[in-house]
Description:
Elements: H1 8-11, E1 19-32, E2 35-41, E3 49-53, H2 60-63, E4 71-80, E5 88-99, H3 115-120, H4 129-151, E6 155-157, E7 162-163, E8 175-176, E9 186-187, E10 190-191, E11 202-204, H5 209-219, E12 221-229, E13 242-251, H6 255-276, H7 278-287, H8 292-301, E14 305-308, H9 309-321, H10 338-349, E15 353-359, E16 375-383, E17 387-394, H11 399-408, H12 417-424, E18 430-436, H13 437-445
Parallel strand pairs: 3-5, 6-12, 14-15
Antiparallel strand pairs: 1-2, 1-4, 2-3, 4-5, 7-11, 8-11, 9-10, 12-13, 13-18, 15-16, 16-17, 17-18
Helix pairs in contact: 4-6, 4-7, 4-13, 6-8
The protein binds adenosine-5'-triphosphate and manganese (II) ion.
Adenosine-5'-triphosphate binds near residues 434 and 439.
Amino acid sequence: MIEKNGYIRDLFRQPLGAPVAALGWVKTRRDSKGVHFIQLNDGSCFQDLQVVVEAGAIPEATLLHATTGACLRVSGELIASPGAGQAVELKAREIHVYGPADPATYPLQKKGHSMEFLREIAHLRTRSNTFGAVFRVRNALSFAIHKFFQERGFIWVHAPIISGSDAEGAGRMFQVTTLDLMNVPRQGGQIDYTQDFFGKSTNLTVSGQLEAEIFALAFSNVYTFGPTFRAENSNTPRHLAEFWMIEPEMAFCDLDGNRKLAEAFLKDIIAHVLDHCRPDLEFFNKRIDPTVLETLEHVAASSFEHVTYTEAVRLLEKARDQGRAWEFPVFWGADLQSEHERYLTEEVFRKPVVVTDYPKEIKAFYMRLNEDERTVRAMDVLAPRIGEIIGGSQREERHDVLLSKIRAQGLREQDYWWYLELRKYGTAPHAGFGLGLERMMMYLTGMKNIRDVIPFPRTPGSAEF
Ligand code: ATP
Ligand code: MN
């Protein structure tokens, strides 16, 4: 059995003089006048454990292999640290090297690596300060999300990843097929999907919303939390081909309730991460973006701004009339672009803004039509630096209105048969939203590229690891 004292995180709380064993990977090593200082980290916390090796304490042959990147077990005694930066350190009596890492070739050296380079070594970047912090925050965030919903009685729904419904239309889809691509069966000039694995054409899901609606109309309050896929060929720092989405769906809820839940949700998960990942957030604040902590504390404590789309357009037009040059023209009916969203959150309100009641033409068919018959009960939550972080709506629960919207948009009625039946049998007002987990991660950490907040990013032209 491997003898151990638990995580390095817990060693810091042991009494001085306690005999302990620490297991982890060497982050850095410094040699000075016969004394060696080894920073050991096991991923359990931001802080490294400083191991001190006094002259003659450990055989040279062992020390030779205790270099950056090596995996070690160090046993010894906890002593008060005279150095700055840590209260205690581990005085080594014995070192076992599980796995050396040749300093001549180990790719993760002490400093100066670009995020792009670190992406190329995704199997090792996990041991860096930055990615240690990123993935601890991602874990805490995921837990906070479940906690928020579970404490409110929401049921977690596992929406399917392979989707047979053509009804989603949130973006370009990845096709799922076992057909022989060298010899695709055809029938009357078309691909014959009856010979495919499922007997029909299928895709990776772009959203679990429609399935969540089914569950909300039986369990009242539900949420999905899982991977979603979009084959959008947009190489932006905010888009992934595979990303995680959280989609709560609530029966007996209107747009106001939806907006309030979204606000409570964002504040709650921010507060949780502030509470549980301080040292990681302090690192981001120091090294990645100096506004991170201030912004998060501000957001957790203040109330979100709420404007209608119509008011938002008025603000953007006013800015234009005062000399602001928009790359994309602003007029009632135009979709808000990233530059507009960022202007509203970063310059006008300086906090998250919920924009509601968009023109029906630029939003999905399932959003509930307002009494003005020109706008729908849609909402986007916009955040500084990120733009859209949440998209949601009150859903159209009236069978006839939904049917006429499906027809008006030229969609095929038969594809939505079960979605329409939900409105035929026991319909109820309901609403929900979707939060992109990685967008939230960018917001929490200040990381500039979405590829650096997911373990193994999938983007156009890239699916390494
Ligand atoms: P955007 O306009 O930013 O592309 P969207 O309108 O396509 O977003 P929705 O379909 O409303 O977004 O999806 C819900 C949420 O999922 C978004 O608010 C965002 O947080 C996230 N999201 C959407 N597309 C992506 C993507 N390609 N990569 C990562 N997150 C995404
Ligand atoms: Mn999109």
